[in-house]
Amino acid sequence: MPDAPGKTWIRYSQRVDAVIAYIHAHLADPLNSDTLAEVAHLSPYHWHRIYKAVTGESAMTTVKRSRMHKAAAELLRTDLSIQAIGQSVGYPRLHSFNRTFKAYYGMAPGQFRHANSRNTDSAISTSAFNPARYQVTLDTKPDMHLIGLWHQGDFMEIGRTFEAVMAQCSIHGLIETEPVTAGVYYSDPEVTGVDALRSFAGVSVAADINPPDELQKIIYPGGRFASMIHTGPYALLNQSYHWLFGCWLPASNEAVKDQPCCEIYLNAPVQTDPSELRTAICLPIQS
């Protein structure tokens, strides 16, 4: 087991957790480094270095990434105007939102919405003829021991839970050079209300590692899986799920197992352009 962190460092991690929660609750509000230092009750002279030491990125990078992720999800899931979405993520001026979104996703908000807001049937039929984009492999995986936190609510907001998990794992010395992060999704967002959605955000650890008090541990059962790689923003993951269940599964002659899907994140949003994010979607199937 890693050595327990000192009390001061644990206190710092708790303040970072509070700031992460504050950021996600106030994306529409003006946020700057001084404001977040006040939330953390830390000197602005040292706040930036402490936050980056715990999370791996600056607080303002977290703010921007969280705002852009929410904006992308709202563009695809709602009919709100682009200006209204920009305002909801802290950009009262439309031109500023357009510029920032384009720099982050490589296209303007309107282009992003038009390119990706297709109805389900259209998305499936179009993707079915593009095997280079969607490839499924059948394999057997061992049990996965995950240390993390439960997330209640919108799957598109699980990022804030992962950020809290990664901060705690960093503090307690549980993060390896290339940690395996995974999300387990116990609800179907197509039929379950947003507030009732339940998931788990975790980091894979050895079986003999016990969680610190701030985190929980679950065992995600191994077995046979149909796995596919989704490449691109998390906001577009739903398209890959539609293809996997609506196109591949009926043609595969496989039967699903009574077990929730798991996502394994093959690179980190902290270090990766959204277009290059790689997510393994793992569908449990019967032996």
Overview of this protein structure:
This protein is α+β, with helices and mostly antiparallel strands. The chain folds into 2 domains: 110 residues, Arc Repressor Mutant, subunit A (Orthogonal Bundle), CATH 1.10.10; 149 residues, Multidrug-efflux Transporter 1 Regulator Bmrr, Chain A. The chain is 43% helix and 18% strand. It contains 10 helices and 8 strands. Strands 1-6-8-7-3-4-2-5 form an 8-stranded antiparallel sheet, with helices on one face. It is globular. The two termini are 35 Å apart.
Brief characterization of the structure:
With 287 residues, the protein is α+β, with helices and mostly antiparallel strands.
Low-pLDDT parts are 119-131
Tell me, what is the CATH class of the largest domain? Alpha Beta
Give the helix tally.
10
N-to-C CA distance = 35 Å
Structural class: alpha+beta
Helix and strand run: HHHHHHHHEEHEEEEHEE
Strand order of the largest sheet: 1-6-8-7-3-4-2-5
- DSSP strand (E) fraction? 15-25%
Tally of strands: 8
How large is the radius of gyration? Answer: 20 Å
Helix proportion: 40-55%
- Characterize the overall form: globular
CATH topology of the largest domain: Multidrug-efflux Transporter 1 Regulator Bmrr, Chain A
Fill in the keyword field for this structure.
alpha+beta; eight-stranded antiparallel sheet; globular; Multidrug-efflux Transporter 1 Regulator Bmrr, Chain A
